[in-house]
Amino acid sequence: MGNVLTIRGGVPLNGKVSVRGAKNLVPKAMVASLLGNTPSVLRNVPEIKDVEVVTSLLRLHGVEVTKDPVTGDLTMDPSAAKMAQSKDIDAHAGDSRIPILFCGPLMHSIGEAFIPDLGGCKIGDRPIDYHLQVLRNFGAVVDKRPGGISISAPKGLHGAKLSLPYPSVGATEQVLLTAIRAEGITELSGAAVEPEIMDLIAVLQKMGAIITVQTDRVIRIEGVRELTGYNHKAISDRNETASWASAALVTQGDIYVEGARQLDLTAFLNTYRKVGGAFDVDDDGIRFYHPGGPLKPLVLETDVHPGFMTDWQQPLVVALTQASGVSIVHETVYENRFGFTEALIRMGANIQVHRECLGSVPCRFGQRNFLHSAVISGPTQLRGADIDIPDLRGGFSHLIAALAAEGTSRVTGIELINRGYERFQDKLEGLGADFDITEEAPVFAAGLL
Ligand SMILES: CC(=O)N[C@H]1[C@@H](OP(=O)(O)OP(=O)(O)OC[C@H]2O[C@@H](n3ccc(=O)[nH]c3=O)[C@H](O)[C@@H]2O)O[C@H](CO)[C@@H](O)[C@@H]1O
Ligand SMILES: C=C(OP(=O)(O)O)C(=O)O
To answer: Which residues bind phosphoenolpyruvate (predicted)?
Structure first.
């Protein structure tokens, strides 16, 4: 049984929020601590679900994780790393996508790994074939077991010449975390180059790794025998920033996001300006606001970095329901990321989803029967509704639609939002949102009352 958020819409969000370390970097930097022979310190750590999951998995593997009670900084000491019981690991099946990144570090530190079935947002099939292929190329042996995979390297891990069919963020990180202590040189082509990957490379370089990022998505790693711990301040969460920026636009508000970094958001800021949003950048953050007047429709394609990030799409789609005219969004990273539009349509939005690639470049999903292009006509008045949150970003988009809507919305499944938005209820309160939280009433079987 979870909590219910009752939102009374129509109030512009105004004020300041602070954004801390990125959900898509922090848990991975925590996994990297297993590769060092001295403790690591990670700063700017947000209180989100994926951090809890990785803390627990590290502890199960003998890593001592301590949290500074004032700053929240994490110290991770891997000197007593050990194999965990698979029944304990099983408890984390379905929690997050991070466990797959334990493969290389655990093989290097204790010789083998058991990885539970992955979780994360349900936005497509999300296979791990690239991960398993690169691990096998390093010399790993992978066995499918009930509830997960077991993996070892009886003949050691060796550098390899690798190429990804698509610039996958997770598979690129898998290569980095495995190659840095593998014997010899690894050359990865077709690599992802998201800012969170560059920050992970900075962490690994502090530990003693030798990694060169070349042009054209080529990353070269020279394996080293030993690494130390690191001390690092995590890059801030650009996806959370983009979400609050869209919230300001949708509710006709004005939000200063402390900690936002312009350089990681270039593609988002260009789009924000084109749609009619305004922003001011200073040394400590970015102010996002609705400058008045109608919003403009646009044609948009999600893409790997440096393109428009797929995790920014959903809150921006809500803003596009308020633009005067027809917008098109072509989702090219995940095949099934428009499920959240169903609730927006119930709230009064005019959105159609299509199987065709409605973009300038045909993508991997065009011939495969996936509803991956959306046509949004606006402006439409949104009305309050009952909503059960389907995933992280879709869920945030529902929250901001409800905050802008006429009338009251009743939102369940809000625990999913904690995967990527630290203390979001406190932040909403600080921005003046009108809502309250109650416990969901138990459902009794008919006849038992
Ligand atoms: C925890 C984390 O960092 N999550 C982010 C990460 O997810 P994640 O690392 O899971 O995403 P990937 O970049 O790997 O996925 C991109 C595409 O590659 C496909 N693929 C991936 C791996 C594989 O083995 N086989 C395969 O086909 C996926 O199904 C998807 O279509 O990057 C995504 C793309 O920027 C973001 O939306 C997620 O927020
Ligand atoms: C898809 C996302 O996350 P994950 O990969 O953790 O499911 C996201 O952050 O929007």
So the answer is: 23-24
